[in-house]
Amino acid sequence: MTRLDGRRSYDGRVQLQSDPDLPAVAEVVSLSPAGRIARLAAVVAVLAVVLAGTVWGDDHAFPFGPFRMYSTRADPNAAVISTRVVGLTAAGEEVRLSGGQVGLRRAEFEGQLPRIEAHPELLGLLADSYAQRHPNAAELVEVQVVQRHFELSSGQQTGVFDDRVIVDYDLSGRAGGGK
Asked: 113 exposed, middle or buried (CB, 10 Å; 0-12, 13-18, 19+)?
């Protein structure tokens, strides 16, 4: 900003005020030999845990173990698996039960897949959630967990895939049908 006399606001001298009671140079404090040994022991312990986690750890040991998804490489010729949940209507129509349809994200669902395989009746909860969110939709008679295996060659899709039903749950035997 320019003042009326032509000087700029930042041209003036700045007076720094210091407290006359403060020493000009700060005092250096040294660690005692016991303090040095304690810090060194802590560093060695953390490094040992990180090294052990790197060699033998997995996702559950994070942050001392690596996330396998970042620390390993997938085989470029192995199949890629995509999991989806679908509901089937009496007419045989397939309805996706993911994301906004039931309020459950794919990663959350895939994390619960072993539990759902052990207790397929949990799929009924997804059908109930779908029915509540879509009251005018056709009634579901079955819910399936389907995995699509995409074949790869040198990391590229070949166009070949197959669908496998991992878990299915028949809703017709429940009280109240599919709703």
From this structure: middle
